[in-house]
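Could you join me in thinking about how sequence relates to backbone shape in a protein? We need material for that, and I hope you will provide a protein of your own picking. Label the sequence line and the structure token line clearly, so we can match residues to local backbone shapes. Would you write everything just below, so we can both look at the same thing?
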Amino acid sequence: MARPLAIAFTYAEFLASALLFVPVLGIARLSSRGDPTHRVAGHWLRNFGKLTARLTPLWDFSIEGDAPADIARRAYVVVCNHESNADPFLLSGLPWDMRWISKEELFKLPLFGTLMRLGGDIALRRGEAQSVREMLAECRATLERGLSVMIFPEGTRSRDGTLGEFKDGAFRLAIEAQVPLLPVALAGTRSCLPKGSGALGEARARARVLSPLDTRGLTVDDVATLRERARSQIRDAVSELRAQL
């Protein structure tokens, strides 16, 4: 398929899929309104991400590595590097349910913001302490109910692909909740939707599930150590993935 035609098709299928999934997520949200984690609606939101990524001829996505055997019944704090707004479409292929933390601006987008709200993702106003506290409280409540949460610890997308410094929040959360930390690495999505550009691009991208890190017995004094262990795992895996691509 010629590239202009592929781009036009991709925009069309994104719109059609979003219109299809809004009522589906609405029904899922209503059917499980007694569940504050919104697991069922969130599951359908990831199905939307997987479907749209598979339908576009522009993107070739895949997932490597094994999910922890107990992740369906035990909560994890999942952390991943962040290359572009296409990352959630790639990471929707991860084979478990979780709630995502996303910047509040994304919840205001037409259709896609509606899907995120219905799917139960958690909004964060960056730079506002009260919003951070509310987000962390929602994350703790989600983990207590056995559902994992997904956080990009860099806090923003990388403009040039360089792995940024990780913020402490995800690692403090995992230690305080005494749940395992699960690092995930990705590479290749920066070409899908480059930061600062609204243009779609062609790309091969991969994500890799890495070894979980146990937090049992750790205290807040261990936040920096846990953070750097996860960052080191992700950094090495990103380098390997880029060499493959």
